[in-house]
Structure formats: C-alpha cells, structure tokens
Amino acid sequence: MPILEGQSLDFLSHSPEQTRRFGVRLGEFLEPGHIVGLAGDLGSGKTTMVQGIARGWGALDPVTSPTYVLINEYRRADRGVFYHVDAFRLENATEAMLLGLEELFDGRGPMVIEWPERILPILPEERLWIDLRWVDELRRGLRVTVNGLRYERLLDDFRQAAFGK
Length: 165
Fold this sequence. Notes:
By secondary structure, the protein is α/β, with parallel strands linked by helices. The protein contains four helices and eight strands; from the N terminus they run ββαβαββαβββα. It has a single domain (3-159), classed as P-loop containing nucleotide triphosphate hydrolases (Rossmann fold). 27% of the residues lie in helices and 27% in strands. α1 runs parallel beside α2 (46-57). The chain is globular, with a radius of gyration of 15 Å.
C-alpha cells in the first residue's frame, strides 16, 4: 500500500515488472519540459523505471541504458522526443554544462536523468525526483518527491490514476 503525502509518495515495488508498470503510469503524464531525476544505487531499478516511463509516454523504440553515450533520444508517432540521460560517467555539473546538457532543458521533450545528483547544480529547481532503493533481490522502495506547482499537479494526477486517491 503506497504512503501518500502532499508532495511525496512512497511505494514498495515487489518486482521489476511492477517497477516498470509504475513507470508506465507515470510516463502517461509527462509533457515537454518535464524533468524527472532517478537516484539510487547500481541495480536499484533506474533503467527499469525509465523503460516503463518511456513506454507510458509513447516511445516507439525500446529503451537501453545510455551510460556510454550519455543521452538517448526516443521518438513517438507524433514526432515528440523523450530524452534519457545517464550522468553516471560525468564528474560534475561543469562537465555536463560543457557538453551542452542544459540546452535540453528548453522544453522540447520530457527528460529523465539517471544519477541526477552528479549534475544537481545545473538542474532546474522545479522537478520530479524518484529515489530508488534496494530492499531485497526483487523488491525496491520508491520515494517520489516534487518541487514546483507543475509537478505537484502531475503527482496529484498520477496518484489519482494509479491509486484512486
């Protein structure tokens, strides 16, 4: 049973597929310009979550981890673009700035960032953040927090659709 508070939501996923389904439901609400940070240790389910989010958003291509290329772009039928960033190999926010990552915050499409804490200084203040933590071999704890009215509305809509509350 999820724990629902004003600007946050705690959820226990019992399987990778449940984590993916959570992402699918969330992805249905993403719009151009939305920023979603996915923080957590290796193996905590970040890429699994992105796979679901991209599917829910309508991406036509399967999601793969962009660890070695930094950014993957996925398209949907209406030519919208979804950005998947993996900041694991970045040393700091300055490196991200030098690579032009800030230019993608212009609202062309939603952006999901794995390892966002590595580039925190350049991230917009208003965003949705998901902390994933390892509980055991299959289960993962998810804590969703939002900052900004746009994201509070997104979380309220998601909460209503996913949990009826």
